[in-house]
Design a protein that fits this description.
- A two-stranded antiparallel ribbon has the order 1-2.
- Strand 3 and strand 4 (about 40-45) form a beta hairpin.
- The chain is about 15% helix and about 20% strand.
- It has helices spanning about 20-25, 55-60, and strands spanning about 5-10, 10-15, 35, 40-45.
- The termini are far apart.
């Protein structure tokens, strides 16, 4: 895809294609990773890491799960089943 550079202040800027924006769920203020290799520039949208409860619990020291005093006595605020 051929892009035209435009001057904005002391910099040159180019637009990001709409397809790339939609494909990577980007919006105003999103950050992307630029990689430079010689005359090649690559733009990547960082992926959000998905955490699984079982993986997070596996990282906890054996038998040392954090405890919050009074947790069992807090009132329900949604559709919790007690």
């Amino acid at each position: 895809m051929l892009q035209t550079l435009r001057r904005a202040g002391g910099s040159l800027v180019m637009t990001v294609p709409k397809a790339f924006i939609e494909q990577n769920h980007l919006q105003d203020g999103s950050q992307v990773e630029l990689s430079l290799e010689g005359s090649r520039m690559t733009i990547e949208a960082p992926t959000k890491r998905r955490y699984k409860l079982e993986d997070l619990l596996a990282e906890m020291p054996e038998g040392k799960l954090p405890k919050v005093e009074g947790w069992d006595n807090t009132p329900a605020v949604g559709l919790e089943v007690l």
